[in-house]
Amino acid sequence: MTGRKDFLSQPAPENYVAGLGRGATGFTTRSDLGPAREGPSEEQIKEALAKRAAQLGQAPPTAYGATGKKDDDDDDERFQDPENEVGLFANGTYDRDDDEADRIYQDVDERMDRRRKARREAREQKEREEYERNNPKIQQQFADLKRALGSVTDEDWANIPEVGDLTGKNRRAKQELRKRFYAVPDSVIAGARDATQFDTSISADGPDGAGTSADNADGNMTNFAHLQAAKDKVLQVRLDQAAQAPGMDSVAGTATNIDPKGYLTSLSKSELKAGEVPVGDINRARELLESVARSNPKHGPAWIALARLEEFAGKIVKARQIIAEGCARCPTSEDCWLENIRLNDNHNAKVIAANAIKALPRSTRLWTTAMNLETDTRAKKRVLRQALDHIPQSVQLWREAVNLEEDPADARLLLAKATEVIPLATELWLALARLETPENARAVLNKARKAVGGQGDSHLIWVAASRLEEALGNTAMVYKVMERGVKTLARESAMLKREEWIAQAEKCEEEGAVITCGAIIRETLGWGLDEDDDRKDIWMDDAKDSIARGKYETARAIYAYALRLFYNKKSVWRAAIDLERNHGTREALWQLLEKAVEACPHEDFWMDLAKSKWQAGQTDEARRVLKRAFDMSSSENIWLFAVQMEADNGQIDRARQLLTAALEKAGTDRVYVKFVAFERQQGNIDAALDLVTRGLELYPHNAKLHMQKGQIYESLNKLPAAREAYAAGIRACPKSVPLYLLAARLEEKAGVTVKARSILDRARLQVPKNAEILTERVRLERRAGNLQAANNLMAQALQELPTSGLLYSEKIMHLEARTHRKPRALEAIKRVENDAYLFVTIARIFWGERRLEKAMSWFEKAILLDADLGDTWAWYYKFLLQHGTDEKREEVVAKCVLAEPRHGEVWQAVAKDPKNAGKGREEILKMVVQRLE
């Protein structure tokens, strides 16, 4: 133990003054005990202050108590505040001129500040809004949820479960689980024993007798057949998902939209049963509902929920007791009484209904329910009479009373009384008008119009009046009544929206009132639209929507109204003509086409009219139509159509005369092409060669003429001349893909594969990234037997065109093994959005796997995507020849003839062959099927 004193017991150092380092000085007061002593001297104070300043890194204090200025301090007059005037201006005096100058400067500053204020405030507001939008407050984030709480009913609040200590419960459960110990099963011990063994023996027969299996290192059997089957199943599911096209918005999209109606329907079919719900959940719900009912006994939904819970649990007697108590506690709750009636049998329900009506004598639902409890019609009428005594203004009760009357005269009397009691009930007026004679119905509707005025469903009265005139055969009055009705409704501000009027027109069409439908469209279609609006586009969309809903008369009326305002618009005439062609009669189509050629004498309308007459067997009428067309226009399309019509009718000389006249009046390159094709079809090779030579002199850059010349020489087996013709065509038309293909196929036919390869390589340079050229290059190597080169070229082609369905189809069907086709198809459908060639390829894969429904769906998707591709129709028809019915085959042939396909690799080769001239599309379809590979 040391004898040194502690710090506070030690004597103070010499000349110690408390707080001296902080600038304090010593002093003595009268309260000090003992002799006073002197404080530190001035030198000691300065020394202490200097020491303290040195520790703080400051300059020692001066005689004025302020720290001295360091040498490196740069605080000179350059950095002084200009507002703090020093020196000569420190005590300067100002005169009135100086004050005036200061005032003027201040006014200028304020004016400039006001000029910039609006822009500054706008900029600050914008920045503040941007900041608040990017950094919303907590109350703003939950504002929509707080507003949604306003729609929560008391029953929903009462059904909110209490929050338990789930965290602690889970923690305790985990702790209990850790305390448990289980015996190690023998399989684990055996697995540990055999873990070091390795066996690679392969069994010849798997578990199913046909697969191949192998032992893994852990002793389990691996069945390769099962693995392959699982892989195929996964690919199948993915292709099925890709095939789903919701709403046909995307033909092969991979969207996974859920149909809300179908989804809710499926949910309604999966109702729970009492045995499927745990008893604990039912007890928990019972406790909650009982708590709500006891805490708020005047809340009817709580008693209803509790009664339904007991009914769900199978305790119907207890449910009746609970709902009876609820009715006693809530005698003014209509729902409680209705639930009580529902839960009881018929006899007790009548008693309960009587008590309910005593409590709520003006409840329409209770009176209707009491009426439905009666089995005798007379008793039902008696209940309804009492109900009408209590609630004479109920339209529903009057409707029920009228429906119970079997005699129309009695029903008429009831409706007459009902309209007196409820003059604003449009429904009752219309019912009365339907029961009256036509003359009396007019009077009833006039009374209804005066009584209702512009309130409620007053427009239905005018529609009913128009339909009445239509039923009487007064067509002119239908339009007059509808016109007057629209004016009256507009004057009384009871006019419906344009879309609602269209719905009324469609309803009239559905019920057979076609003239009223047209009158409604005529008087209301332009309501609310100005001339500046895109009225034509709006009306065209309205007509398309009506056609999609199957309301063709409404669409016809819309087109008729649009044609009155847009009389010279070709697009409107075309839409109306298409409607008549697809959903109208032949006579209506002819009438519309006659009006079209008068209003808009376009060559397409002339040809449509002539073609329609021709297809109807009226050849002379078709000729007269074409003669009228020739008088108005000497278009080459009309000339060529006339030639085709005469040639198909077997009038070869007449067709040749027309072609000769067309060369004189409209000697275009297209006329030369058609004339050459006509002579080739007739077998006049010399005349065709002479024509093609003359045409090339006039039009040396027409690729089709060069192709025709080469094909003529090729048909004569003059390969050098054909080669020269194709070469000249390529020099004149270096961007023509068909010329390159014909030249390459000619060389391949001659056995000069190297030359064909050279031509296609040159074509790739002239026309880069062309799917047809790249595909032909791959096919050339494949036909030559160079599969490795074909695969290499295909890889390069897919790098250039990764979204080409033609390339993927060639790769999948000809360069891939059968087992690899489905994965490649899945890869292709992810990269290629919509391609008919690829869809046909996928359909063929399913066809090969005997997945007939899937194959048919993919064929139909391909046709829907591109109906102009003839090869798709041919593949589909070939599929139906093996797996389709006669009706389906006839349907496909009819649709193909109607679609009039013109393109396709095999289709064009067959259709443009001179040997097949004059054959219909059905014959061409069957010939293409024979040539498909």
TrEMBL record:
One of the protein's GO biological processes: spliceosomal tri-snRNP complex assembly
Keyword Translocase set for record: no
UniProt-annotated stretches for the region Disordered: 1-135
Domain of life of the native organism: Eukaryota
Listed Pfam families: HAT_Syf1_CNRKL1_C, PRP1_N, TPR_19, TPR_8
Compositionally biased region (Basic and acidic residues): 39-50, 102-113, 121-135
Domain Pre-mRNA-splicing factor Syf1/CRNKL1-like C-terminal HAT-repeats: 536-800
Signal peptide range: none
Composition-biased stretches (Acidic residues): 72-84
Localization: Nucleus
InterPro entries membership: HAT, HAT_Syf1_CNRKL1_C, PRP1_N, Syf1-like, TPR-like_helical_dom_sf, TPR_rpt
UniProt GO cellular component terms: catalytic step 2 spliceosome; U4/U6 x U5 tri-snRNP complex
Span of domain PRP1 splicing factor N-terminal: 12-169
Keyword vocabulary terms for this entry: mRNA processing, mRNA splicing, Nucleus, Repeat, Spliceosome
SMART domains xrefs: HAT (SM00386), TPR (SM00028)
Keyword Nucleus (UniProt): yes
Stored SUPFAM superfamilies: TPR-like (SSF48452)
Protein family (similarity comment): Belongs to the crooked-neck family.
Subunit structure: Associated with the spliceosome.
UniProt-listed PANTHER family: PRE-MRNA SPLICING FACTOR, PRE-MRNA-PROCESSING FACTOR 6
Protein name (record): PRP1 splicing factor N-terminal domain-containing protein
